[in-house]
Amino acid sequence: MKLSRYFRPIMNTESIYPADAVFLGSTSLWFNAVKVFERGKVPIIVNATEIPFEIKSQLSANRGKILGIEKKPPLLMGVLNVSPDSFSDGYKAREPYDLLKRINKMVDEGVDIIDIGGESTRPGFTSISSDAEKNRIDEAIRLVRKNFPNLLVSIDTRKASVAEHALSLGAKIFNDVSSLSFDPESIEVTKKFGSFVCIMHNSGAGKDLHKRIMGKDFLLDIFDHLRERVEFAVSSGISRSKIIIDPGIGFGKTVEQNLAILSNISLFHSLGCPILVGVSRKKFIGRITGENKPEDRLMGSVLAAGELVKHGVQVVRVHDIKETNQVINMLDKLHTAD
């Protein structure tokens, strides 16, 4: 069922705030105005008093620790791809020594979560067997767990058996680009381990992950897709407190659509789940900046990450951990300065 009205809080970071300010969860971000979307209509700005009680409760609810981590968000999720055809793995680590070197570097640079993926889901990707994917991710997970047992590990996969293998080794997050729709066993695996699960918007199943999304109300369609998948997960026995949402930047979206999602990202806070966004080195940044090589898209990537932080996004998925951390730290100091 589609909603009739959708509310995007317009975030503010000022230390002085009016009496009608509503704070986003347990953060210092607040709003007293919202952008209201209705299908087929031009958005309008209204006072936050017009937000329905249920939605306002979701926005202002104290989320406590994000993914169980004792740290002020945003959390940095570092990408560790062990697939040879990844669009930009940032570090071609294959052997145990190289993998450990890469992992150590990520930790030194301040990573909070390491997201390990064994199958590329870039446009035109070639799917591999579950056994091949398990073989690729096995060593990386074991190395992280052995050397940094308290570091949170995420498994980036669409396959239940791969997720089960990773979770049995100590991974805590099932990061599924298919939003638990590719493999019918994914729900049961998630419940079995009590893991966190990231539900990402996509526009198709299987190799249609990059099927173009259409229509003027695509932003609201993405919201409804995520809302429906969250409700499916909850009704299947997964606690809402274990669910993360991801609008799926780059998956079936044009440059203009990606930009519209990013500039309106706070819309998704009303789903009541932490938001994860991955913009790092993606093609739309290259289209804007003219940089064809993913590794040359650093400035665009960290700028986009900084904007996400200003809108209250709780988890940012990145390749360039050190540089993104610098941006986050600078923003934090600027926002808390008198």
Structure, explained:
By secondary structure, the chain is an alpha/beta fold. It has two domains: 1-62, no CATH class; 64-336, TIM Barrel, CATH 3.20.20.20. 35% of the residues lie in helices and 16% in strands. It contains ten helices and 13 strands. The strands form three sheets. Strands 11-10-9-8-7-6-13-12 form an eight-stranded parallel beta sheet. The protein has a three-stranded antiparallel beta sheet with strand order 1-4-5, with no helix packed on it. α5 (186-193) links the parallel β9 (173-176) and β10 (196-200). The radius of gyration is 19 Å and the shape is globular. The model has no long low-confidence stretch (mean pLDDT 91).
Question: How would you sum up this structure in a few lines?
Answer:
This protein is 35% helix and 16% strand.
Characteristic key phrases:
globular; eight-stranded parallel β-sheet; single chain; 2 domains; TIM Barrel; three-stranded antiparallel β-sheet; alpha/beta; 338 residues
